[in-house]
Design a protein that fits this description.
The protein has about 300 residues and is of the alpha/beta class. The protein has 3 domains: about 150 residues, Rossmann fold (3-Layer(aba) Sandwich), CATH 3.40.50.300; about 60 residues, no CATH class; about 60 residues, Alpha-Beta Plaits, CATH 3.30.70. It is about 40% helix and about 25% strand. A hairpin with a 2-residue loop joins β9 and β10. α3 crosses α4. The mean pLDDT is about 95. The protein binds adenosine-5'-triphosphate (ATP) and magnesium ion.
């Protein structure tokens, strides 16, 4: 199948600053593709080039088989966007925001109203329908951005941190809707800092750092490739415990007094550590995407 989106040597510069430094990726129809990376990695800049909010500086970006630089208008009609920052019309009600936004896509007045009502129903926002934006909570505004992104029944949906700041209930609702949209064939680009979210929603993802893609693949494959099955976390390991870890040949690192051990068989190793009378707190858990993220992008703050 032809990809829905192809980026080749895609570059974004703002003056002297290179935010996206020549990246390559493609997205298949119906796929949910994740963009992960520390603050400032270039995720939003990449997303903005896809929805033609900022011009491409270099390389190629084709969406629906067309060059974004030459066909931005047609492409934008088929894309739904949930931007990272809330940009709702503060003076309008929830319903009016949706209607006005639909009208930008050339949707007729009656149809725009019907669509807005349908989305309000779909997201169970009936009680917020006539509320002004300024009176909504931060999380509620954020949810409304996701709702608004759907007014034009997009073939490609771009969600830039759609669940940042949402409570667990609202986050799960968004996940459920994303799954539903995927089932209906919508292609999705998702950026997030919630590793669990990326793991459950993304078919494939790219981890970005300093404008480049440092790794890509299916979430479970990335965990298996970089970390293994289990992680043992030990607070202030005793010298004897460290010797056991060394003897087992397990990769490990210490950060802020806490030692992380990556292994295929945590149970066996933890039993050996326990025999050595490790005093501090010891936890065994499953390896996850966050371990991969930290391994590849480091533990230092970026911005
Ligand atoms: N309009 C702009 N003008 C100048 N520099 C910009 C602009 N937008 C972004 N940048 C810079 O480009 C780099 C990448 O920013 P971007 O917003 O793409 O990162 P991000 O991965 O989305 O980060 P975050 O996780 O914080 O949202 C950063 O160094 C940022 O300061
Ligand atoms: Mg961003």
């Amino acid at each position: 199948m032809e990809p829905i989106l192809t980026a080749a040597n895609l570059t974004k510069r703002y003056g002297d600053l290179t935010a996206v430094a020549g990246i390559d990726f493609d997205i298949a129809p119906g796929e949910c593709f994740g963009l992960l990376g520390p603050n400032g990695a270039g995720k939003t800049s990449t997303a903005k080039m896809i929805y033609a909010a900022v011009p491409v500086t270099g390389g190629c970006l084709c969406v629906f088989g067309r060059d974004i630089t030459r066909h931005a208008r047609e492409i934008k009609k088929l894309i739904g966007v949930c931007p990272q920052d809330v940009n709702l019309d503060q003076d309008f009600s929830v319903l009016k925001n949706l209607i006005v936004y639909a009208r930008y896509f050339g949707i007729g007045a009656a149809e725009a109203r019907r669509k807005a009502e349908e989305l309000i129903e779909f997201f169970q926002l009936g009680d917020k329908r006539d509320r002004k934006i300024e009176s909504l909570s931060g999380g509620m505004k954020k949810r409304l951005l996701v709702v608004r992104a759907l007014v034009n029944d997009p073939r490609l949906l771009i969600l830039d941190e759609p669940t940042a700041g949402l409570d667990p209930q609202a986050r799960h609702q968004i996940w459920e809707k994303v799954r539903q949209l995927k089932k209906n064939g919508t292609t999705i680009v998702l950026t997030t800092h919630y590793m669990e979210e990326a793991a459950v929603l993304c078919d494939r993802l790219a981890i970005m750092d300093r404008g480049r893609i440092v790794e890509r693949g299916r979430p479970a494959d990335l965990v298996a490739r970089h970390i293994g099955r289990d992680v043992i976390e030990i607070e202030d390991p005793s010298p004897a415990a460290l010797e056991e870890i060394e003897a087992a040949g397990a990769r490990h690192e210490t950060f802020a007094g806490r030692t992380y051990v990556y292994t295929e068989d945590g149970r066996e190793l933890i039993a050996r550590i326990a025999r050595e009378g490790q005093a501090g707190h010891v936890v065994l858990r499953q390896a996850g995407l966050e371990d991969v993220f930290l391994k590849l992008t480091g533990r230092q703050l970026r911005e």
